[in-house]
Amino acid sequence: METVETFFQWLRQSYGIKITIGYDAWDRAQFLAGLWTTVKLSVLSIIFSLIVGVIGAFAQGSKYLILRAPIGIFVTFFRNTPPLVQLYFFFFALGSVLRVTTETGGSAPMVSAFSWAVISLSLFAGALNTEIFRSGIEAVPKSTLEASESLGFTRFQTYLYVVLPLALRISLPSLGTNLVNLVKTTSLAYAIAVPELLYAAAQIWSEQLNVREMMTVLLLTYILLVAVLVWILGRWEKALRIPGYGV
Amino acid sequence: MWLRPIPEPDARVPGHMDVLLPRRSHQPPALNWREALFNPLTLTLVFAALIASVIGTAWAQDGTPGQASIPSVLLKWTPLLAQGFGYNILISVLSMAVGTLLGVLLGILQVSPVFVIRKFAWLVTQFFRNAPWLVLLFYAILLIPFQVTIFGVTMPFPGWLKAVIGLSLPVMAYMSEYVRGAIQSVPSGQWESAESLGFSRGQTMRMVILPQTVKRILPNWMNLYAVLTMATPLVSIIGVDDIMGYTRSALSAEGRPDVLIPMYLYVLCWFFIYCYPISLMTSRLERRYSVKL
Prior knowledge:
The structure holds 2 protein chains of 2 kinds.
Chain A: H1 2-15, H2 20-23, H3 25-60, H4 65-79, H5 83-97, E1 99-101, E2 107-109, H6 113-138, H7 142-150, H8 155-185, H9 197-208, H10 211-240
Antiparallel strand pairs in A: 1-2
Helix pairs in contact in A: 3-6, 3-8, 3-9, 4-6, 5-6, 6-8, 7-8, 8-10, 9-10
Chain B: H1 33-37, H2 40-60, H3 70-110, H4 115-130, H5 133-143, E1 147-150, E2 153-156, H6 159-185, H7 188-196, H8 201-231, H9 243-254, H10 260-290
Antiparallel strand pairs in B: 1-2
């Protein structure tokens, strides 16, 4: 740790490159906290968006219009409107209505900015996941469904044990693209003052006036995060591969 | 045999034989653009969105007398919002133009026979493709000087121009990937026959390969434009005038909490009405072109 700090100090004194997170403990703590928030935001949004996608795709395959139509409208609307405006809508518009009265008589928001970011990002990515899963489900061969039906599976059991495992594998490549996009989109939470990576970096560069250095560190950190996700998805894809099933 | 009636010979189908029925392709009939844009589903969705904004109103209204009704408030701010939305469209069109031009060049470099150029183009593409749009916007806004001096003339470099540059970077990277994929999907026989006809590499690229890639890139390109348009509100975060900035000004001028939900829904509808036809046309094109490959 000592040598690392000396190195960054030397970098600053000899070349004027101020990577403050290298030698300033406060800045480093702030940056790492931001990184942790971004990771939490990404993981939670990924999980919830997958849940939304699975439920949405199940409902889209339903034979009842009453179930299909709302999901269709939800997907179409969320796919064709800007995620930032959605986030603003949730945080500023719905957030201003959903308030509770505290014990001291003041009014406090019921849902924190972080939670609104998770909700908004999950719904946005979930709408895209619904479409992705639906096309995966449509790619499952009809004969497989007939086989499971003839074995006495109910529609729900067929979906859970037969269709979903196959559809997941078929839709994995486009799912990966969408999840990578989701991680990139978490930077929008900056706009509603969630202390994530971009927010922490902006705090640091406005205090230390080292925009160029922090910006580069920030970009590289995001690319590292995306690289980790791509690696995990690659491993997952390899582990789930069905021998002989042409994808 | 008697279960199914033998069909009458169909003179319209060439090659018809009594024993072997011709294979019919099951292509869905292509819709014209008018049907694609103004079908019942589209209209229902648009109206549902508009009605939702009015219902949201009634739900959030406190019922204070002497206040303007919510639709009239929305109507009052519509010219300003339209102006802001115009800026969004302008920024998206300019970014798309710049990004497409650079992206095609970068995509061609990605299939260059020179290893170093190829690797460099790949690196640039991956870098800008995997960085968040907002971070790239910050990059452009904070690191491009606010004025430039060319031949002794100092010109200001306005924020919206920097925003255009910042947004065109990811567009360039995505476009580069599409172009690379499309070039590589052209059968190698095309290259070989062009070579045997005495075309140089540049000529082959320009006259033989690139024209064939247009069809493959077009749906992706349109989708990218829709994504870009939906990314333009980001410029409000870095202080460039656009519909989001104007919306927030309008909301603070009104100072009424009950307008919040309808106003944001109204803005969402603006984007929806602009982007939905594009995505409909994209899926239509995708379906039409995917059959022929």
